[in-house]
Input
Amino acid sequence: MRLAPRARKAVLTVHLVAAGAWIGIDVLVAVLVGVGLGGGSDAVRGLALRALAEFVVTPMLVSALVCLGSGLLLGLATKWGLVRYWWVAVKLVLNVLLCVLIVVALRPGMADVGAAGVALEAGRLPASDISFLVYPPAVSLTLLAVATLLSVYKPGGRVRRRSQGTPRSGARGTAPDMRRTLSEARPTFVA
Output
C-alpha cells in the first residue's frame, strides 16, 4: 500500500505536529519539575507539582500515541518501511519505549506528586520522595532529540536481511570459508 503524495504529506504533517507537541510537553514537564523541586515559595512549588500531576500525563500520552500511529502509517505506506532502514527501526523502538515508560513509570507516580504538591501548599513536608521527577524529562527529551536527529540525517543505511544461502557467521560467507581454507592448508608434522 502506498500513500498518494497529498495523503503522505498530510500524515507527515500530523506526525511532525505530534512530535513537536510531545517535545513541547516534555519541556513543560522539565519546567514544572524544576519549579516543583527547587524554585520559589512552597505555594509555588506545590502548585507546580499539582499541575504536573493533573495536566501532563494525558496530553503527553496522546501526542506520543499519535506520533506512533502516524509513524507506523508512514512506515507501512512509504518507501522507508518499518524495518527497512536502521533509522526508522530505531525511531520505532524509541517511540514504543517512551510510550511504555509514560504508562508504566510516569503515570503511576503522579498520585504521589499531586499529594506532595498539596502538602507543600499546606506548609508540610511531602510524605514521599519525588526526586525521581528529574529523570522523565531528561530521558524523554534526550531520546526525542535522538529521534529528531535520526529523522533529519537518516544515518545507517538499510537493514540487511540474511539470504537463505548466506552463513550466519561472517560477512557474506567469506570469513568462515577463509578460516577453513587456512586450517586445511596448514602442514601437519608427524614425529
User: Anything to note?
Assistant: The chain has a mean pLDDT of 87. The helical segments are 5-38, 42-55, 57-77, 86-106, 110-121, 135-153, 174-185.
